[in-house]
Design goal:
globular, alpha+beta, 2 strands, 104 residues, single chain, 4 helices, two-stranded antiparallel ribbon
């Protein structure tokens, strides 16, 4: 993890490893989507940009079936490419979700 993730007191985004300082857009991600049996299940705090990329990449079914852990999410080729890209940005970096969206 980089220096940003080592700042005392700031939570760390488990997807990209960057700190999530107060005031930075963030949200909770259900590791198993609520609509696929994850209501009341484990959640993780992520940068909003990281959360957006997860949902732009994977369907609810794919998340529930194959990507219900941070390790599994980090292993997905598109998400791995995104993580390498966003890890070079400051923790407060915001952007529209890059790249083509998955087909619904």
């Amino acid at each position: 993890m980089g220096l940003d993730a080592e700042r005392a007191g700031d939570p760390v985004c488990p997807l990209c490893g960057r700190a999530i300082p107060e005031g930075v857009p963030q949200s909770r991600h259900h590791l198993i989507p609520r609509l696929r049996g994850g209501k009341g299940g484990e959640t993780v705090q992520l940068h909003q940009i990281c959360h957006n990329e997860i949902h732009a990449t994977l369907s609810e079914t794919e998340l529930a079936r194959d990507y219900s852990t941070i390790a599994a999410l980090r292993s997905h080729p598109r998400l791995a490419k995104f993580i390498a890209w966003v890890a070079k940005r400051p923790p407060a970096f915001k952007s529209k979700t890059p790249g083509k969206r998955r087909q619904r």
